[in-house]
Amino acid sequence: MNLDTIFQALVSGILTGGLFALVAIGLTMILGVLKIVNFAHGEFLMLGMYLTYYCYNVLGIDPYLCLLISIPIFFLFGVAIQRILINPVLKSPMEIQILLTLGLFFFLQNAALFFFGPYLKSIKTGYARAIISIGSVNFSSTKLIMFLFSIAFTLVLYVFLKKSDLGKAIRACSEDSYGAMLVGINVRNVYMIAFGIGTACAGAAGTLLMPVYYVDPYIGLTFVMTAFVVVVLGGMGNYIGALVGGFIIGLTESLGAALFTASLKQLATFVIFILILLLRPTGLFGARRM
Amino acid sequence: MRKYLVLIFASIIMTMTLVTPARAEAKEVRVGLLYPISGPIASIGRLCVQGHQFAVDKINAEGGIKSLGGAKIKLIIADTEGKADVGMAEAEKLIKQEKVVAIFGAYQSGVTFPTSQVAEKYKTPFLIAQAVADPITERGFKYIFRTQFKASWNAVYTLDILKWLGEKYGPMAKTVALLYENTLWGQSTAKMWKRKCPDYAFKIVGDFSYSKTATDLSSTISKLKGKKPDAVLQISYLTDAILVTKTMYELDFNCMARIPSGGGHSDPRFIEAVGNLGENIIVNHMFHPSLKGPGTKVQDVNEAYKAKYKDDMDDYSASSYSITFVLKDALERAGSTNGEKLRDAIATTDIGINNSPSIYPYALKFDKTGQDPVATGIATQYQNGKLVMIYPEEYASAKPIYPMPSWKERGLR
Amino acid sequence: MLHVNEINVHRGRVRVLKNISFRITEGEICSVVGPNGAGKSTLINSISRILPLKSGSIHFCGQNVGRLPPHSVVELGLVQIPEGRRLFRSLTVLENLEMGGYQGEGKRKRSETLQMVFSLFPILKDRKYQCAETLSGGEQQMLAIGRGLMCLPKLLMLDEPSLGLAPLIVRIMFDVIERLNRNGMTILLVEQNARKSLSISDRGFVLENGLITMSGKAEEIASNEHTKKAYLGL
Predict the structure, then answer these.
(1) How far is CA B10 from its chain centroid?
(2) What's the structural domain count of chain B?
(3) In this structure, is residue B405 part of a structural domain?
(4) CB-based contact, C150 to chain A, within 8 Å
(5) What 3-state class would DSSP assign to C126?
(6) What is the structure's pLDDT at A72?
């Protein structure tokens, strides 16, 4: 085992960890505020990737510029989904809610299959080939951009939740929606906005992922499984936990592959998942803390 | 009222299920296709189906199965979604509900393994044109036939190519690394490499398996780079083939030769996704349109195919196309669609190279296990964005580029 | 000011409130007395619009609020301090108070109201940046009242404000309620501590099994033999 491989694994782990965090933060927001386990979250990411693909290939819009399109579109998409589908089941038993989001998952996946076809698609940008080398450690510029945007997006979201009235109201609702109603917060609106933001996170993550990876209708599940582990690891509804959890999982996967074998890397992730569930079900940082 | 509606509905369904096959049986031979036509490797599965369809259209146009009164072959397509459990259920459905006389499938070794078992159980011939894992034809089954070489033979073939490159063009590779996806296909091939490498004096310096759903392979490629192998022997499906290639470029990994076996690297979408990063990869497979067969047979079939589907034939369509004639030949000789009779006819297949409708570069016949003992492959290399034949030399259309220039030498980094 | 007219409220299949009618006039303190399970919290929650009315109407300051969503009722100045406080536990004291003044008039006058709340409960000012859950029970009740005041209530409804608090804190709570009332706030008080609450109230009524069984001046209720035995522990 040489040191170069370890450094490379650390850098790769942190870079992918940033993306995991962004996907997980959207998921954790929806879970924390609406108490809904959103199985369709990965499909929003998949749709974000397709949107970026078509923006680039048909309209010639740069993928990073496409963030300006995907964030508002997915915000509105999330608001609509919440309004039409999620809202009616908010007071229903958990099984009903899970069936609904699972149904949405299958629907979106099959819709993608129908409209976009089963073949994988990828985009080739000019800068996708730009490699950054620091000593023996190499990584592509697109991964760095993905990481920086993910972190920036997460931080903006954090400041928004921490400082703005609306952000505080979102946290208040996730804490005690009944109490929130009694102080005059329009909880229904907050739910829609929170779901919109969560969806926008997934859409933005899809856009950032597109220059790095490829898209097919099945891509969502790969990422959402990891995101669920991150959410549980960080504590459900905990935003800082999701960020830290993203890095932990990113590093576990890359170091696991470096020290053992890549065949086991997802295994390592799920071992962590099971250990957390057994030993610390509230997650590393406890539920619902900023 | 509701009761009546239910009754009417139920009787419509029953009529449909009872009448359709009965009417069909008279002039049709129903044959099942079991391939992944949705899911991550759907593009490959669809090419397989296309190859069968092309062959069947030709057979039907030329008068169908003459010994069965000119019966036409009808293909019933079932989707495995690339999953073993789905495949098994679909195989059972093909046999029991669709009443197919034989099944072609299922591309992936991991899916072919259990689905062919279903066919064996119901005494329905199962013909395999692509799945290469050794054990598939080593289970003592009676109804399973494979015209593709075994993974282990192919593994040896890869080593032959590497040795040939070293001897003819030099320098000889001394160290190799194995890089493979961790399902049956990758693992069985890797096992064979490990057994055979000492015979060729190749030293295995790295052994890396990975999950084909991995989202990042930086650590694996970084470890591979640390081992400094002369050549990389690889088994990958499509998405992981793309990821490996991109990551090798990202981490500036260079070697004298990269020889993956078929799979993802020969999928047209591979080169589309990686562009010139795929240049000079040597792909080991079983068919190529530039193959010089006896006469102009291969080119003729390929031209007709191209006219219809706007694309050259590839491993998948060509192997599916060829194996379809094994069934046609057997049906003619059996003069029956009875499972046992058909099975015996297939077992005694003997289609030579020269006058066969198949476009395989070898004869079609089966040993006791149902394996074609003379099956072999060819090697191609990506040159200027296209695959060209490089080995065996008597069929070759271009000279190999060896050793593979580094990313820097190619001006990519 | 508040006119509740013939309301019926169900929880599941159980009819909890049966044809309840009463009025609250501006500037008074009115107490609701009754055993556990009589429907006192249900009554307050129906006025807050958390629970739907089966029939009947509620008018506040002349406006029909029977169909409004809960947050609009708050904006009109009809504010509830719920039983169990329902604070935002991981938010700071200041953030909790800010959430009180989340919308409308409350938001515009937020900084003034904040000063008023801090002068009423100086301890909250010292604990401004602490998480609500780190406060003691008494401080949490103060925060709950403070948060309610941030909504600029015209009618403040308190549900069991002295529940589980030490006697000293209970006295402070009642002092505060009286002070708020002297400054012109109308108060609807639901209390298990009936003697204490009736002693500061102008009027009161008794709720038993979802029915109003008695209403009148606070002293009359306090001196009634039945209520004395049942709720005042005399």
Answers:
(1) 42
(2) 2
(3) no
(4) yes
(5) helix
(6) 97
